[in-house]
Design brief:
single chain; about 425 residues; mainly beta; 2 domains; 16-stranded antiparallel beta barrel; 6 helices; globular
Length: about 425
């Protein structure tokens, strides 16, 4: 018994020597570990070392375990919030292959994204969260980098955030890790109308009310940038400033409210409202167009059927001022109103196949019209009305890995405007 006890002490000491130097949450309290350890009895030393080993086993070395979202972010992006203190490292990636089923387009394979979340929890009130993204192997971006201040006395009802912020618009802009949605590609409504991922420099508040039933966010950020000349009016992606040396003559209000109806149902609303900053061909003293973006959605599960419905619209004011500085082709200018919506259904049938893997067939329909309304500065373009039909399969052998297969058909009213493609993807989070 004595020999076994000594062997257990020796084993714990060796483990401690191996792992303690790499502990990311080293603090003043832990700095005193050496002195308290040296003066402790044998049983106290065993207890101290056992606690340290257990802490590391619980993944506190590089953040808490993945499995829950926090503050409206994806599971991997939430790691810094799920750890008690110190360094948190996570990330995600996605690789895909697209085969076009008709036409003469070349098929495409792409290591699309490799993302690293690096966060640091300074204490119970202050934390840092960052996302560094590599796209297409050779492009790099800082997706977000912000400081949170969560006063203990406010108990999560009010927090403060500042830095390069992901805008709380729709669903995908904040929660876009590939294991969290169906389909190899993100919904096109939340790619073209809501230009995912959108991020801008600014500050704001967030919190949870009504015993966790309601989450809210409000940010004041640099507003959209005027796109360069000759840009077409079929999308919003070129309006993003992305926080990199952006013009800041005008700021925008961005807000989101999400109500948790029950454990499986969420209803959300978001708004963006701001004037468009001058850049490119626009002058600082020019009159400015403005845009208001509105989103409403519901997502959840009903009798084992997963569902999502999202509606979004963009309304421009003084859009003629914007169009005057863009393309001269009236059919390619911006309308006064853009609309889009999508719905999707999915069901996990893994149990029916005799496996504990998540195996879910799904279907998603999307509609986008960039010229739902136009003014005298543009002509209505029927080619800007597009529909997407995506059906496929999502397989998750474990929570962190998703294998995706789908066929997408998209149609518009242009000549030859009926396209089909087969997509295969691999996504992961850690």
């Amino acid at each position: 018994m004595v020999i076994f006890k000594k062997f257990r002490v020796l084993l714990l000491v060796l483990l401690a020597l191996l792992v303690v130097p790499f502990s990311s949450s080293f603090s003043k309290e832990e700095a005193s570990l050496g002195s308290s350890f040296s003066g402790a009895s044998t049983d106290e030393k065993i207890s101290i070392l056992a606690e340290e080993v257990e802490r590391l086993r619980n993944q506190e070395l590089f953040g808490g375990e993945i499995g829950t979202t926090n503050k409206g972010f994806g599971p991997a992006a939430s790691k810094v919030y799920n750890t008690s203190k110190g360094l948190a490292i996570g990330g995600y990636g996605e690789i895909f292959n697209t085969a076009y089923l008709a036409g003469d387009k070349a098929d495409k394979s792409d290591a699309y994204r490799g993302v690293f979340y690096i966060g640091y929890k300074f204490d119970d009130e202050w934390s840092l969260n960052t996302e560094i993204e590599l796209e297409h192997v050779d492009e790099s971006y800082l997706e977000f980098a912000y400081i949170d201040y969560d006063p203990k006395s406010l108990d999560g009802k009010l927090g403060f955030r500042a830095g390069l912020l992901l805008l709380p618009l729709g669903i995908i802009n904040e929660i876009h890790e590939p294991t969290t949605y169906h389909g190899v590609f993100r919904p096109w409504v939340e790619n073209k109308l809501i230009p995912t991922t959108s991020r801008e420099n600014g500050a704001g508040i967030y919190g949870t009310l009504m015993d966790g039933k309601v989450d809210y966010k409000w940010y004041y950020v640099t507003s959209w940038q005027q796109p360069a000349a000759t840009k077409k009016g079929a999308g919003m992606r070129d309006f993003r400033g992305k926080g990199g040396s952006t013009v800041s003559n005008h700021f925008a209000n961005v807000a989101k409210l999400e109500y948790h109806v029950n454990d499986s149902t969420d209803v959300g609303f978001s708004i963006f409202d701001g004037e468009i900053n001058p850049s490119g061909v626009a002058k600082v003293n020019d009159s400015n167009a403005s845009v208001r973006m509105l989103t409403a959605y519901i997502q959840g599960e009903y009798k084992t059927i997963e569902y999502t419905y999202l509606y979004h619209e963009n309304r421009f004011s003084s859009v003629g001022r914007l169009n005057d500085q863009l393309t001269s082709n009236l059919h390619e200018k911006f309308g006064t109103k853009q609309v889009g919506y999508y719905w999707s259904l999915a069901k996990d049938i893994g149990a029916h196949l005799g496996t504990d893997w998540y195996v879910a067939p799904f279907f998603r329909y999307e509609y986008i019209n960039f010229h739902d309304e136009v003014d005298a500065s543009a002509f209505e373009n029927s080619d800007y009305e597009t529909q997407y039909y995506t059906s496929g399969l999502t397989i998750k052998p474990i929570y962190n890995i998703a294998l995706k297969f789908d066929v997408t058909r998209y149609t518009d009213k242009a000549d030859g405007g009926d396209h089909r493609q087969l997509n295969i993807g691999l996504g992961y989070i850690f």
